[in-house]
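This part of the workshop introduces the protein records we will be handling. A record pairs a protein's sequence with a compact description of its fold. Comparing a sequence with its tokens is the quickest way to learn the format. To make this concrete, we reproduce a full record directly below:
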Amino acid sequence: MAPRKIIIDTDPGQDDAVAILLALASPEEIEVLGITAVAGNVPLELTAKNARIVCELAGHTHIPVYAGCDRPLNRPLVTAEHVHGKTGLDGPVLPDPEMPLADGHAVDFIIDTLRAHEPGTVTLCPLGPLTNIASAFQKAPDIVDRVREIVLMGGAYFEVGNITPAAEFNIYVDPEAADIVFKSGAHIVVMPLDVTHDALVTPHRNDAFRALDSKVGHAVAEMTDFFERFDKEKYGSEGAPLHDPCVTAYLIRPELFSGRHINVEIETQSELTLGMTVADWWRVTDRAPNAMFMGDVDAQGFFDLLTERLARL
């Protein structure tokens, strides 16, 4: 079977970096057409820089990286340096990238790529706020029907919020963009906190990354060492959730995940629950299903896959 063609839309972020590395290490299953950066965990200047740092770490400098939207559609930018550090990739000491940004805007790259490929052959993989994707859909509505699938990390139901009591960070940063995407009619697969909070980097699992004894293995271990300090203190867990690599892992081994095809609506009005993903998990409304909302992951299988693939880089 030919590898799945994808665009990774991202705001790196240590967990975004691991998601990108997993994709680049899996050419049999995944062909990365390009990476589009968006403002989120840190401002756009840093996310665009970090995406290139990760490509160089993996030795994949041929992957084009495009800078996208530097703020949400209708709101001031909210960032997460308190989690990811001032660079977004705090932890390892990595050199500044030598590869340049690709010419052009990320939104135009998304539009042009979907138009250039056969309908139903390109998957969008958003790992951050959905600003770039929504902007592309608004600018070129014809591309929505050309998307094979959108596999995204965002939202929560049983785990509620991680940036407010009700909202997960990626959706909260740009709820209007998320609303556009979820109402677009595209086929959507969601990796919410309900799944990612089961994918914890325990000391044993992080030791396995370090034991790879490679530049990538040490960098990932140092990223997760830094990243987990916040979540371990916040949740009292034995490790931090690796959110974004769940998207990439699903493309490689979908059988690791289970969920329900349900209706998901985005709250855009309430000050109390802004950015909440209102997931009709129990199907108590008559609203039409619009997303496969994942609820469980084989965590050990996920980390076995991640460790095995990172060893390739």
